[in-house]
Known about the structure:
The protein contains 25 helices and 30 strands. By secondary structure, the protein is an alpha/beta fold. β14 (335-340), α13 (348-364) and β15 (372-375) form a beta-alpha-beta unit. The longest helix has 17 residues, at 348-364.
Amino acid sequence: YSHLNDSLRQVRRKLNRPLTLSEKILYSHLCDPLNQDIEPGKSFLNLTPDRVAIHDANASMALLQFINAGFDRTALPTTIHTDHLTMAEKGASEDLAAAKIRHEEVFEFLASASARYNIGFWKPGSGIIHTILFENYTFPGGLLVGTDSHTPNAAGMAMLGIGVGGSDAVDAMAGMPWELPCPKVLGVRLTGRLNGWASSKDIICKLAGLVSVGGGKGKIVEFFGPGVEKLGATSMATIGNMSAEIGATSCLFPYSDSMSQYLKATNRSDIADAASKNLNLLAADEGSALYYEDVVEINLDELEPHINGPYTPDLAHPLSKLGQAVRENSWPENLAASLVGSCTNSSYEDLMKVSGLLEQADRAGLKLKIPFFVSTGSEQIRATAEDAGFLEKMRKAGAVVLSSSCGPCVGQWHRTDVPKGEANSIISSFNRNFTGRHDGNPGTHSFVTSPELATAFAFSGSLSFNPATDSITNANGELFKFQHPKADELPLVFNKGEPLYQAPLPFAEAQQVDVVINPSSDRLQKLEPFEAWKNGNSLDLPILLKVKGKCTTDHISPAGPWYDYRGHLDNISNNLLTSATNAFLPDHMPGMAKHAVTGEIDATPVIARAYKNAGIRYCIIGHDNYGEGSSREVAALEPRYLGAVAIIANGFARIHEMNLKKQGLLPLTFAGPEAWGKIKDGDRVDILGVENIKQGEALTLVVTSKDGSRWETKVNHTFSEGQIPWLMKGSALNHVRSLKVL
């Protein structure tokens, strides 16, 4: 805190105005606060994070880049978390055992690389990355970067958590300045108090409906007001976690007594004591609200429970209006499954609420109408919930208790009850609900809500049910109405459970560890540096496809079974854009493209690989908010590996745009959205001026149609002067190697 306060004093002298809490924490982590240009929405900040966190689905590629760059040891505290690769199917013990067999090669690679490079390693079953971080590493006023878009979960501890790609993580791990576009701050003022069935999940679901999936882009969402004081730490973490669904850079709450209590309950009283002596750093300055980009007000007294979906997390429905929306849109009314858990909602408090509702149902003689799945956030939560009897009540009710991992939330759900393509509806306490997100089925209508509502719906089996007003008939013909559940945020004491952590080794011992990659492996592949930019690279480019509609990172690089190949670039590239809709082929299924030379129509990665093999460079046309969703870096690595030069769209999600730049691709936005509509099948494009690209200066796009006619438009980029070498050298890591800073 002494260092952070010293930096903050320098920033105060420079800006000479009240600071928001977001600005205090972010600017106190500047590498050079005296000379840093600070201009929200325009400048790029060079920052020193406090720690780095990586989950297993991204860790292989991040470590391969770290090794490829020649670094010898991490300079910042770093942890790897095995949470994404475990498939949910039969239950915790069976699923974990299966994962350890299926992913043995990857887990051994991650464990050995962690030991070699000074990284803490959380083993399978230990828990979900954000829950582990919240229980062990978050601290008020800190800055965390993580290779997952839901890293803003740290907001519940007054810590800035920012999602990044693997290359960004490598920079931070190596102790290099980490670069971030200077964000604006969106203020959210909370008044009143949650009541009835309303929960913290409804705050972020409501906000998503107000500002949309792109409303937080380039902004930190900072909560303030009297309503904040009544929220628990894990409840605030839920809100921060799902702030990723509005595209926010991060999210933040001021330090509170509930955070202090959580720190003490997780054996971090020393941090709570230190925070109490530095409250000036952990609350916004008086008068700083004038410097919010905008302010949204939410009255918690009037907040109704929300259910958001399907297919996008910003399609918000108050509980009282959900049934009407279902009927008007002809969505499947009967539910096929209910799921509780994920990093968003698997705290002790969440599970206590679920347990309480199950107890109510048991006393009333109610039985589950649909399959009900529950996952715990960590081994500590699992063991504590087991001690409290919560999990036994769930098993008794017929729920399947899954492992402490991501499971269905990230597409790791071996679902067999519904054929692929068949329309069905599910409800969950997850954070994201894109097409095919949970089960790979584009027909699944996924709705996200609070754990308590997901539980109540499991007994009704219908989206027209409103637990606040409706009753359910039990087997004896008796009517029963749920009472909204109450719960404690914290247990009297946490049970840590099984020890599943591998600590970093002493330097001398770590140097003796061998990290072996089998050359014949189909799971892991050493990376080769990408070629540097060559003059003419951006001329006469065919268009691989023109994306129409939502194109998230799930569309660009689907998850599910493809998680197996996240450490093997050649193999994972076989899923490139296989879920994206091609406007050039309206009568074909998603994931198809047409060869510009032969006219052949085939899967998009097949056509892309054919271009690569023929030495044909190409571009991709995106639509709005291209790359929305997760931080998965393979969504940028794949088009780069298969020969793409540029992605041109109406707009990009923050993390994906940075990932594209880091890998030596050229993300460009049309100066006007009407240009997207003018792009036709068979067009070829020239991007002029790339060899002389400069910060803040637009490039020219010349489009030549099949009939020889031409038109042009300006396209914008966000490369800073310090980022331009990434493009010219072929990637950010190539640039790092060229500086000989290793």
